[in-house]
Hints:
By secondary structure, this protein is mainly alpha-helical. The chain has helices at residues 9-30, 36-43.
Amino acid sequence: MPVTSSTPIELVQAVYDRLPDSVRIGRERLGRPLTLAEKILINHLRDREGQEMERSRSYADFDPDRVAMQDATA
């Protein structure tokens, strides 16, 4: 049985298209280079320009593109 991806290429392309702008905004707001985790999280923030970003203090609202869930009913 062939394995195929069910993720539309347009969804993946949209994530990568907004990444440079998100990283720029994050660097400007934090005033330092970003870790990989920060780049991923900032790229999925609901409000990248207005969201408070203070480590260990701020809560964040995210808009994930996909969520992977495990069926644990067994």
